[in-house]
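REVIEWER CHECKLIST
Item 1: Sequence provided? yes
Item 2: Single chain? yes
Item 3: Sequence as submitted:
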Amino acid sequence: MFTPFPVLTTARLRLRNVDQSDVHEIFFLRSDPEMMRYLDKTPVKTLMEATQHIQKLNNLEKANEAITWAITWKEHEQLIGTICFWNIHPEHYRAEIGYALHSAEQGKGIMQEALRAVLDYGFKVMHLHSVEANVNPDNLASVKLLERNGFHREAYFRENYFYDGRFLDSAIYSILAPV
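Item 4: Structure as written out by the authors:
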């Protein structure tokens, strides 16, 4: 399904596959406390762990279980963020979306642009009927991004997720394919 890899372009961005040359940027995204604040996942601690994370992304893509794009400016190849479809359920025409953007690049409309391109790919090429986003409700920037792009909150689960010694809430948003 994802071969050849679908490179997407927007007015300012190029969305390409994540590869081992991105290890330092992936390390930053997956280890910086500010970047990991709302991801509720164990941060990577070494470049080897970042390399293993990239390999995991590539393996999921090869198995058609997920696809992750590196977000870059058109002018250069340096990864500034990622956006992905994962938790793909082809039998239900549904996938979950996830994203992360380098803190220095936030507030520039980058994720807005990347999200539109990826949703377009999901609905037109993957033929998804719906896309879900599972958000830490305290991540107001993510909630606003989703709502601005037509996602609606479908559920709010209280203390349904245990991470780092405490129970956390989850908000589930989704969008249906345009008719």
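Item 5: Key structural point noted by reviewer: The mean pLDDT is 96.
Item 6: Recommendation: ____
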